Amino acid sequence: MSLKTETTLVEKIDELKKVRDAVIVAHNYQAGEIQDIADFVGDSLAMARYGAQTIASTILVCGVHFMAESAALLSPNKKILVPDLEAGCSLAECITKDQLVEWKKEFTNAVVVAYVNTSAAVKAESDICCTSSNALKVVESLPKDKEILFIPDMYLGQWLRTKTDRKIHLWNGSCHTHLRIRPEPIFDLKKEHPQAEFLMHPECGCLTACMKIADRILSTDGILKRAKESNAKEFIIATETGILHRLKKENPLKTFYPAAQEAACEFMKKNTLEKVLWSLEDLVYEVKVPEEIALKARIALERMMQIQ
Ligand code: 13P
Each residue of 199-243: pLDDT tens digit? Predict the structure, then answer.
């Protein structure tokens, strides 16, 4: 795309945002050009918080489908749009509502903690949601006599098990992108850059192998905050590669090494500037959650939102 076309696209998007009374909320894994035109960029929790408090009547969610559903649940009177309905989440696909209903039957004294990377229908069968930035706080907020069914990410669940003595049962789900992050290249990067700080997302498939050598295990916003605050000049970053855009932009004098170049989520990257424009032009694609599901799913999400 030429610079001229790009400028025109961005200008058109800016104009249409005003006409549509819309804000653009983007996840840290979005393509850089989308992050650059967004009104807000953040992790799943920050996106949900921003969406819930914005006064705009339309929210265009640039991320994956469950993020738009969360916005629809928390802002029932706003129009929630996504640029591409096929931007789904492999992790959210790992558990269906029926599978959860069956699993719950095995544990009568358990509460269900659902990572936000789940469908609204699954959230409706859950007691409380969490994100990677508040998972530990959420788990520790639950009554001590209850066991926990943690869905769907087994790596985040495994990490939680190392942080708390709560009894946590894990669902066998994972993110296909974070599974591409393998331990061996990280060991090599650490040898090549011994001064580099190693920051890792808890969804990483190499969690068990790398947990002991990680300097911090953090959500995407946690990684961004740490990179800014740290005195280190070099970082090894184990998560989806879209985060490198903000890391480099916000820390021009620091160097970032992706743990795996191939950890690029093709669903996150389905959104493009053109699709953002079309979305605002035609007010597509609207994401709505059926009211009978929303009534229950909202409770689980709002319980999480109350945890500071
Ligand atoms: P964060 O909440 O850390 O941004 O993670 C969201 C996500 O979908 C990771 O795959």
Answer: 999 999 999 999 999 999 999 999 999 999 999 999 999 999 999
Residues 145-160 pLDDT 10s:
999 999 999 999 999 9
Closest-lying ligand 1 atom to the alpha carbon of residue 29: 4
Interval between CA 3 and ligand 1 midpoint (Å): 31
Distance CA 306, CA 281 (A): 35
3-88+268-288: CATH topology is: Rossmann fold (3.40.50)
Measured distance CA(118)–CA(17) in Å, rounded:
29
- Test site for ligand 1: of 49, 118, 217, 220, most ligand atoms within 8 A of the Cβ: 220
Cβ-contact 91, 174 below 8 angstroms = yes
Does domain 178-258 bear CATH number 3.40.50.10800? yes
Phi and psi for 79 in degrees, rounded to 5? -85, 125
For ligand 1, whether the C-beta of 153 sits within 6 Å is: no
- pLDDT in the model for residue 272: 98
Show me where the domains of the chain are located.
3-88+268-288, 92-174+292-305, 178-258
Q: Which residues have CB under 8 Å from 296's CB, separation 6+? A: 123, 124, 125
Q: How far is the CA of 78 from the centre of ligand 1 (A)?
A: 23
* 203 SS3 class: coil
| Cis previous bond, 183, omega within 30 | no
Q: Which class does domain 92-174+292-305 fall in?
A: alpha beta
Cβ proximity of 51 and 25 under 8 Å:
yes
At 1 the pLDDT is: 54
Residue of 27, 49, 138 to test ligand 1 pocket, by largest number of atoms within 8 Å of CB: 27
**Is the Cβ atom of 131 under 6 angstroms away from ligand 1?**
yes
Q: Is the CB of 44 under 6 A from ligand 1?
A: yes
